[in-house]
Amino acid sequence: MTNSMQSITEGDIWNQAYQLDNYEIVYDNRCLKTDNKKICAIYFSSSGIYYPNTENELKKCILEKNYYEWKKHKIQRAYKHIYVRDVSKNFYVIGINHCINSIDSLIDFLRDETEGYEIITIGSSGGAYMAALAGLLLDAKTAYCFSCFWSLNHINYNVWHLVGKYQNDKDKSKYYDLTSFLGNKRTNVIYVYPSLNDDVINNDLLQSQFVKNKKNVYSFSIKSRLHGVCMNGFLLDEFINAPEDLILSNCSKISESEMSLALKILGWKQFALMIVFIVRTRVKKIISKIKTI
User: Fold this and answer.
1) Which of 54, 145, 192, 234 could cross-link with 220 by S-S, CB 3.0 to 4.6 Å?
2) Which residues are registered as beta bridge partners of 24?
3) What CATH number should be reported for the domain holding residue 127?
4) Residues lower than pLDDT 50 in the chain
């Protein structure tokens, strides 16, 4: 029986999911009249693409809802948007479908789709790993990486079983250590992580040490245990759409609260709007819980 901590990677429902394209391309015509039409944003799904790890949930999220992460948090300056998901939830080690069945073939596909574009990549957790790797290999201008895994040699193979399965396969494991691709690349890697997370599965604290003082990695350490995006939706939208110079200039070597970061990135007016957003979101959650009682 499959470990409940592991994603579904076999069976009829899995095969149906893996036979899908598992990518979607959308164009934003609002950018046609601007100089931004040559920007392409690539969004990579994380292991949160469906949960819990059951066939019913896989079927509901992928086969029925055709769900992609990041649809609600777009890079507004991009004309072309490519959404990519890893239905195996194993750091894209077997690509995204039966044809694009490796990281190399995925990179080749994305290289063709982004020819002539300035590239921005984005993802969280396992999606951040791929956003960093694809960003570096495709010479992207910017890679936004939330709670990134920098070394797949230091993860729990009981959870990510396919990564463990291929650890001795040179073609697949050559990308397990992302730090070897950092250094002389021109890509600005904007890395946001929760400094208080040291659990045995995600362990952001450990992963953050692999890129400490690495060139082109701009780290934002948030005082949080929340693995993933680790900031509210309002701040997330403002953060990924703020002028890059503003983001890079506020990079700090010390851990700070989400509110402290928000004050740096947002003006007071936007900060006030964020507080209203947070309050409304919490009230909606409370009402939703009351309705289910």
Assistant:
1) 192
2) 83
3) 3.40.50
4) 1-2
Which tokens belong to 275?
Answer: 């507080």
Q: For helices 233-241 and 268-292, what crossing angle results, to 10°?
A: 140
Q: How many domains does the chain have?
A: 1
Pair 229, 147: CB distance under 8 Å: yes
The predicted structure's pLDDT at residue 29: 83
Sign of CA pseudo-dihedral 118, 216, 191, 176: positive
Helices (H), the chain: 12-19, 55-58, 103-113, 126-137, 161-165, 170-173, 204-209, 233-241, 244-249, 258-265, 268-292
For residue 90, being part of any structural domain is answered with: yes
pLDDT number for residue 2: 47
Q: What is the CB-side half-sphere exposure of residue 7 using CA atoms within 13 A?
A: 25
Residue type, 133: L
Question: Which pLDDT score is estimated for 37?
Answer: 64
Give 117's contacts (C-beta < 8 A, 6+ positions apart).
Answer: 38, 39, 40, 80
In a domain, 3, yes or no: no
Is residue 193 classed exposed, middle or buried when 0-12, 13-18 and 19+ CB atoms within 10 A define those classes? Answer: buried
Domain that holds residue 125: 12-292
